[in-house]
Structures are given as structure tokens and as C-alpha cells.
Amino acid sequence: MDLPLLRVLIVDDEPPARSRARRMLAGIADVTVVGEAGSAAEARRFVAETAPDVMLLDIQMPGEDGFALLESLPRRPAVVFVTAYDQYAVRAFEENAVDYLLKPFRAERLEEALGRARHSLADPAELSRRLEAMLQTLSRPAESCLERFTVRVGNRQVILRAAEVLWFGTEEKLVFAAMPQTRHYVNYTLDQLERRLDPRRFARIHRAVIVNLDFAAALRPGFAGTWRLQLKDEKRTELPVSRARARRLREALGA
Fold it and tell me: How far, in Å, CA of 115 to CA of 217, rounded?
């Protein structure tokens, strides 16, 4: 018996990953790709225009991540998450998402995930409940904030304390922790760090910057309503503050 056609939207910021997923989907019966999106903003447009049944969704994307995209959608399709290494995210949604795939995944595993999505779509009320439960899990404050994390230094894994980080930023899609004397790349996106770091100490002051407020020295006006935050380090580092986040930062600093 022929199954209803499953309409899939691919959301991933990496074109090779989208192409690979499309090739795999082409080999699965009763499945059609209704579009590809490389960002959350583009995905929102596709969801509104095509109303896909399933979204094959990457978690880590520049700007808004996959979770932020989901939270912004008035109508949510069934979601199969895709992640390369983020075990924190996997633990957060494995009980509620339709399925998740760890990159690189095989075509057989993708077909299995779509089978689960098809089963969930047969019960829309249950699918909606699971997605809402997942988003509530992700939006709740963590029982314990991220206090330590590991970074690779040569052949070693070095443990860093979050309290010692001046600020977190991005460089060519990679996220780094800026220490007083050096930088280390970390296996988190800024969106994930914003959710997991202690909000009493860390603040997102720009789409590309999270700062440790313990190291804030002075807030200076910049150009066209923007601000610059100067730090207490030896270099007197200045970080950009977006207009949208300036008021919240001033409140956090008591300014």
C-alpha cells in the first residue's frame, strides 16, 4: 500500500550537508524535498510558504540556532534534529523530539527517522505535546550552570573555568573563549552558551559576543546609538554592544 507523500524541508547552514541529505532523501520512497534553507530566517520563510510535514533541522547554525528557530514558529512540523557532537543538546531533547541524527549518518538511519516522523504525524496532538515539552525543557534554567568546560591544547584536554573567561566570540563560524592571555576554541555555539552560562555573570551584548560582566570596566557611547564595553584586561579590550541589547546591559551594570 502506498504511503502518503512525506514533504521534507532541509535546514542546514552547510551546502555539502544539504546536498548529501537531498541525495539520501531521493532514494527513500514516498518522500519529496520541498526546499532547502541555510539559516533560521530562510527556514521560516520556507515553512510559511510550503508547510512541510518534516523538518530535517541542524542545531548549530550562525546567528539563530535550530532551537531558536523552533521557538519562533507558529506552526511546527515534525522535527528530526541533526547534530555533529553536541551531547548536551541530545540529552535535552531525546525524550521529546521525533528523532535525532548524529553526523555523519547513513541513509538507513535517515529512513528510520522519517518512519518515526510519519508515525508521529498520524497523531498530531501527541506530536504537538512532545514538541512543546521539548521547548519547555530547553527554556528552563539548568539545574547547574556551566562552570567548567574542556578545550584542546596540543594533545591535551585542558579544563577551563567559565569564571576566568573574559568573553566569548566568533571567528569564521568557530566560537572561542577569550582568556587574559590567549584564546581557545570551544565546542559550543553562542546560543548554547547563552542558555548554559550563569546569567548573573554573563550577558549577550551582541549577536557575536557574550561577556563576563565581572571584567566590565566602562560603557562608552559609540556610533549611531551603539555602545562599546571596555574590559579590565591589560589590553583594555573594547567589545561592541548592539542597540537592541544596550538597555539590558546598562540595567545589568546598574548604569
Answer: 55
Q: What is the pLDDT of residue 95?
A: 46
Taken in order of first residue, the domains within the chain and their CATH numbers are 6-139 (3.40.50.2300), 148-253 (2.40.50.1020)
Q: Are strands 31-37 and 78-83 parallel, antiparallel or unpaired?
A: unpaired
DSSP 122: T
Length of the chain: 255
CA distance 137 to 139: 6
Which pLDDT score, from 0 to 100, does residue 89 have?
56
pLDDT one-digit tens code per residue, 17-70: 999 999 999 999 999 999 999 999 999 999 999 999 999 998 878 778 888 888
- pLDDT for res 127: 74
Rounded mean pLDDT of the chain?
A: 85
Beta-ladder partners of 175: 170, 186
**Strand residue runs (E) in 140-214:** 148-153, 156-161, 167-171, 174-178, 183-186, 202-206, 209-212
Residue 79 bridge partners (DSSP): 55
Instruction: Say yes or no to pLDDT of 139 above 70.
Output: no
Cβ neighbors of 209 (< 8 A, separation 6 or more) are 167, 168, 169, 239, 240
The residue-averaged pLDDT of 129-134 equals: 70
**Nearest-angstrom CA–CA distance, 33 and 100:** 18
Using the predicted structure, report yes or no on whether residue 123 has a pLDDT greater than 90: no
Provide the grid cell at 120: 508521529
CA-closest candidate to residue 212, choices 188, 225, 187, 194: 194
